Amino acid sequence: MRTTRTSLVIATAAVGLVAGAGPAQGDPLPTEPQTIQLPGTDTAGDDGYCPFAVTIDFFSNQQVTETPLPNGATEFRFTGHAEAIVINDKTGESITYNVSGPGRQTVFPDGSFTIDAAGPNLLWTSVENSQPAGVLQLAYTTGRVRLAVDENGQTASYRLNGRSTDVCAELAP
Question: What's the predicted TM-score (pTM) here?
Fold first, then answer.
């Protein structure tokens, strides 16, 4: 299903919207995470992400600014501290990542969106939507990443000036 990627990537940015009204940046991260389930290719085929199911517990203390744009799009700017714990559901092994960005996501009326982010980020896409070549299903990136996703959830462009870690490979048994 092509819309899976769109909703999940937007969910990552939207986490900051929920947590944006939370405590000041110097306070501890919220103790209740937003939990995101990513099915594995072992059960979901090309709609999956890693060869196994993954759970992401996202803790955010980010400030998010939402700005409506004249073209009907909405821009979200997020700054502040966030962490993601990525768990291999089969083995229970987990890795904690700093995913503080900062970044900007622009969501267009047709459901397409762009992301322009710097620093550390966690990005994911299903196998089905992982074109162009080189886009990892679950990637921890550092540096500047720019990507565009069309209204069908397909990656339209992806450019990284930095490093990318294959989180699926890091968590593989």
Answer: 0.81
